[in-house]
Amino acid sequence: MGRERVAIPVENGTDDGATLDSNFEYINAVDDHDSFQTHIDFSLACRCSDDCENDCPCLARCTYDADGYLTSRAIELAIRAELGVLLECSSCCFCSNKCKSRVAQKGVHCELEVYRTRKYGWAVRTNSLIRKGKLQ
């Protein structure tokens, strides 16, 4: 679809002839899209320089470990559908792009495929192994 560093092919393995809706628009970043209103809470932004320090409020709510993987606790909450939103440092923060609280916003790094299922419609899968907790 052209917006990630790794191509994301679309495959319809069923014989129903369906294609993605012509109104479908893939986005890889939060933007000021007409149908998507963003609200940035500046009170959540950190004032760290370079990488976030240990006492940074962003790191206190960070769901990643030092290697950029979801923590075991975050995975447990996600399995129970209790995780909610992944909060990361944002453009409002003063820290660098190397901050460990910036993971999902760096884009897709694994091979994904959008595919059609008979029972559930369109879905996403990968043909490669993804380590538990890895987002990229």
UniProtKB/TrEMBL annotation:
Residues 44-107 form the Pre-SET domain. One of its GO terms (biological process) is methylation. One of its GO terms (molecular function) is p53 binding. GO terms for cellular component: nucleus. It holds the Pfam family Pre-SET. It comes from the Eukaryota. Gene3D superfamilies: SET domain. InterPro entries: EHMT1/EHMT2 (IPR043550), Pre-SET_dom (IPR007728), SET_dom_sf (IPR046341). Keywords: Methyltransferase, S-adenosyl-L-methionine, Transferase. This is Pre-SET domain-containing protein.
